[in-house]
Amino acid sequence: MLQTARQDQEVLVEMRNAGVHRSGRWLVRGVDLTVRRGEIVTLIGPNGSGKSTTVKMAIGVLQPDEGAVRRMPSLKVGYVPQKVSIDWTLPLSVERLMALTGTLDRKKVGEALEAAGIAHLARAEVQTLSGGEFQRALLARALAREPDLLVLDEPVQGVDFTGEIALYQLISEIRDRTGCGVLLISHDLHVVMAATDTVICLNGHICCRGTPEKVLKSPEYVRLFGARAGDTLAIYHHHHDHTHLADGRVRQADGTIVDDCHAHHHDHARDGGQGGGGHGHAG
Amino acid sequence: MAARVVGGMVMLDDFFTRALVAGIGLAMVVGPLGCFVVWRRMAYFGDTMAHSALLGVALSFLFEINLTAGVFVVAALASLALLFLQRHGTLSTDALLGILSHSTLALGLVMVAFMSWIRIDLMAFLFGDILAVSRMDIAMIYGGGALVLLVLAWLWRPLLAATVNPEIAAAEGMRPERARFIFMLLMAAMIAIAMKIVGIMLITSLLIIPAAAGRRFASTPEIMAIAASIAGAIAVIGGLTASLQFDTPSGPSIVVAALILFLLSLVRLPWRQTAPLNTGGKI
Question: Gly residues: which segments have biased composition (chain A)?
Fold first, then answer.
């Protein structure tokens, strides 16, 4: 029901067949992706599968070399990149970091810090924060902007397991409260948010996509997580049965080479043990 | 006899005052720019731009154009050449800087040697001649310097955002590439203005040492910029006074004074809280 309601929501970002080409190879290619207001889209996939590249295209940090990316006019983005390193010589408190790209209301800054659970660190210098604290500070900064689109590249880095669950719950709450769209990257194949509306698996291209409900039925999910974290965690488990070649073509499990992999099909609900020639990233 | 001494004092007063006024003016401009050079880890980059100034000097004499304009254009072109080579070359930035820095300096020296019809005081360009500063030079420093500071104030937020993280800046509409380009132009302008005062070889030290000395007293980027300006001004006053007292060259004396300030800033005073605050626990 919610799903159909969302179809009417304003489109924040729309990518059509988008790809980025660098040093003679495609980092990612043929990406079709839409994020609407109030929708949470999660990208998963192994290292080097083009998740960060896709996200950077979506928000205009990278320009696509083919295909098209369309953003809502005057789209306000809140971005938490994968890695931020700030030189020690730059004196920057958490509070000051909040106003990095725009002046903010003092109250909103306080609320965002509170929501991220680091209100007590408002005056601390960012270089003194632990990895998890800094990640929360970056999240608070993105939240305080009250963005239309919240973009998070592996937001749980350096955060322990309980912190991870709390952080995903927080992101889901924010979506519910503000109605923003969320584009999320998770490198962990076993942990994606139950609140996610769409899961997209990347591996140089879009391998598959679907609702997490489909994924929740998977027997592996029940075996690994049980009912314990059923509201928050889901497992997304499948085998890749094809290999991506350097020129962008695809070698399938039976050895045939095709131009792309949209022709075949992944089944998430079953254990795809038949994928002999693939690069399985199911753990 | 008595009249001559009085006359001498007046003259001394005059050129010394001019040197002080010029040096303090320059320090105020260089402080905030120097902070960005330190934060962005661009010390060697600044050095390269400064070295290219000698090529600018030679070309200005060759084509009989305004010296300041010639130096500005060549320094700006050197920074553009570097940006281009960084994107399209295979050499590391470090190696590129080494090549550009010393080849532009050498080219300048060779060209000056060829132009036997002009007598050029190389030492004045390499190490500065602050005691020969004219009223026109002072007008140039204050006029040009005010313009540089105004543009920097206008550019402050995008440039700081790009310094912290260019991807966040790009995603949130701060246009980091443009900010970086304008910052290069400001650097080139500052080098053109500063050359006569401290000389090509020592400009970078005036950029970096006062900023480094100011770091310990700063809790925000803005305070550090002001602290760097003040530290620079103190170095100018101290260096020039010492140069008059001990008959040492003015440019190097200013740099030595700045170095002493920096070393003093490293001393931990028991009554001053110098360590960055970290009030929070770890996640």
Answer: 272-283
